Amino acid sequence: MKLYAAILFAGAVLAGVASAAAPVTVTLVASATVVQYGKPVNLSGQLSTKRANQSVTIQATECGSTRQARTASAKTNATGAYTVAVTPALATAYQATFKNVKSPAVTVSVKPVLQLTRVARGSYSVKVTAGQALTGKAVLFQRYAKLRKRWVQVKRVTLAAATPGPAKPTMITPAAFKAKVARGTRVRVLISKAQAAPCYVTAASNAVRA
Fold it and tell me: Who wins on pLDDT, 206 or 8?
């Protein structure tokens, strides 16, 4: 009987130690892995303790930097969950921190905003809006081929000097060009992954009629 009681006691002690030693963890997920420049994305997660009113800090490491900076914070709800909105200016790796505990990093990629305008017959202008200047990068002027049901390259256009946007860090990089396309054809511009790299991903403009 004494031996049985001792075994039960030892088991209870070991269970208590195991429970006390269980590490606290914090998770992090993004509502989207790719967003358009200027658009927010929701970051959410949960503490393994499931305790309310705990402070979780969101750290961000932007493309081209190794420095991690605090970008947001949130309080957990009754289930230990939290959510916060962030607006990345360029590709950014996010990490949730609770005291000395960190979540795995989550990367959100960003698409620049391309705006194509038909200035006159055969004349066009394009503006690329992003969190950094894209001067010297090339965009592809394309037409839509109905029979082939796909976009076909017409011309390669190099972006000119950038100007500051309405608010930092926005930069607007323009280009003006001429191109011959059959009247009424749908046209657009696209920046490829190679040209958008390293801090942005491929993106296409609105379509207009030639």
Answer: 206
Q: What is the pLDDT of residue 18?
A: 46
Is 13 a residue whose pLDDT tops 80? no
pLDDT of residue 196 exceeding 70: yes
3 state SS for the chain: CHHHHHHHHHHHHHHHHHHHHCCCCECCEECCCEEECCCCEEEEEEECCCCCCCEEEEEEEECCCCCCEEEEEEECCCCCEEEEEECCCCCEEEEEEECCEECCCEEEEEECEEEEEEEECCEEEEEEEECCCCCCCEEEEEEEECCCCEEEEEEEEECCCCEECCCCCCEEEEEEEECCCCCCCEEEEEECHHHHCCCCCCEECCCEEC
- The two beta strands, 34-36 and 106-111, are parallel
Quote the distance between the C-alpha of residue 67 and its chain's center: 17
- Identify residue 124 by its one-letter amino acid code: Y
Q: What is the pLDDT of residue 22?
A: 81
Bridge partners (DSSP) of residue 111 are 36
Instruction: Report all structural domains of the chain as residue ranges with CATH numbers, in order of start.
Output: 23-110 (2.60.40.1930), 112-209 (2.60.40)
Mean pLDDT across the chain = 92
> How many Cα atoms occupy the beta-carbon half-sphere of 99 within 13 Å?
7
Which region among 11-15, 33-37, 100-104, 174-178 has the lowest average model confidence (pLDDT)? Answer: 11-15
Q: Are 160 and 135 a contacting pair, CB within 8 Å?
A: yes
